[in-house]
Input
Amino acid sequence: MSSKGTPSSIVDAAEALFAEQGFAETTVRQITSRAKVNLAAINYHFGSKKGLIQAIAEKFITPLCNELNSQMDSSLGPDSKPTLDELLEMLMRALLIVRSENRNALSVFMRLLELAYMANQEELRDFLIGRYKSRLDHFLIYLRQDSAPMEDDEFFWRLHFLLGSMTFTLSNFHTLHSLEKRQFSGEQEGTEVELILHRMIPVLSAGLQARGEKLYFSKI
Amino acid sequence: MSSKGTPSSIVDAAEALFAEQGFAETTVRQITSRAKVNLAAINYHFGSKKGLIQAIAEKFITPLCNELNSQMDSSLGPDSKPTLDELLEMLMRALLIVRSENRNALSVFMRLLELAYMANQEELRDFLIGRYKSRLDHFLIYLRQDSAPMEDDEFFWRLHFLLGSMTFTLSNFHTLHSLEKRQFSGEQEGTEVELILHRMIPVLSAGLQARGEKLYFSKI
DNA sequence: ACTTGTTTCAAACGTAGGTTTGTTTTAGAT
DNA sequence: ATCTAAAACAAACCTACGTTTGAAACAAGT
Output
């Protein structure tokens, strides 16, 4: 019927709905209705609603890791040390690559990360950790080298402060964008996400480089 | 039956379940079962599940604003200028006051904020903004005075980067705490939240004080 | 002791969710 | 033209949800 196949239509519709409503709040009837396919199509092609979510997850996370690692390989010579801002810039570019395929991809991806940290979702969390943690370790090692010196647990928490800024901002980007325009002047739409990602860089960079209070008391 | 009344038992059970599962994922049957009250009790005492959520919301947000403003009044002399770290310290203390009444209060509160920023929840969002924004403006003005000089929209986004760190970390505190203990050594439980809130202060402070890139190009 | 208003309870209601079924349609291979 | 496997479809299924009902238990005032 449409120019794209049924599974592809389903994924497109699901991503749009997941981005604006979240996973639990989106029903398969909404998805199939929007995709203009039969109600049973999701179960036929993806097994279940959960299967659809996992398919979308893998579709985004794998390219993200690829892009991030290839940027690290190409930008980092054998002895060159990247700055913290450069590393974060790479991360943001990798996110933008993910987004380039679908306007809603970043919101969906960030909602997926939020979901993975919920208490009930050990399954999804362990799946993501087991499968993608090693692909991010390289990046994290560089990131830590450029951060202020700190204990392992301190870095763990700062990493999640950073992750929280990203997930919150990008998951709810549509709402935040509306709130901003309601308060201030209007801006062009096309480059909005890029702009916000770049606004994050100096903030996150400063957060990682800040000296923690604990160091005043420990170590020497 | 229990030492506390039925509505209070319901609220306690609901807060614990909301904290670990979220609102949509928690059913009234789970709540009433845990509270050991009849299934119909929520509708009888709170009208609906939504009414229960709103009751819990108001129960926490009002004391938070009170505490924050009273700390500002008592700590700030007529001409004394608070440092950024002092302001954030006040915010964290206000959060801890909210938590002191109930161990799960902070997670519930943060989940509520996340909910308010979702696209579907204009009702809740406008309610919170209309009712509590003015009570926080005083704090925000001081906060901005101590931040790096920046445009209105830049400050808007940094505020939400900060909010994202807080909501993500505290909503999923239980999960993060487990992950941390799985990776590193165990620590005592009692003061964990306090510790993390204080770890946030220098990070958030540095983020607000960081010079934004945009300033390099605009204004003089 | 009787009435009255409030609270509790077991049971059922109605709806909306994800999923399954059995049939029909489609399209490529023989 | 016929056969066959994949895909699409309408309809039903079953479960779980929030909510409602009406009777029973309770408490307090008179």
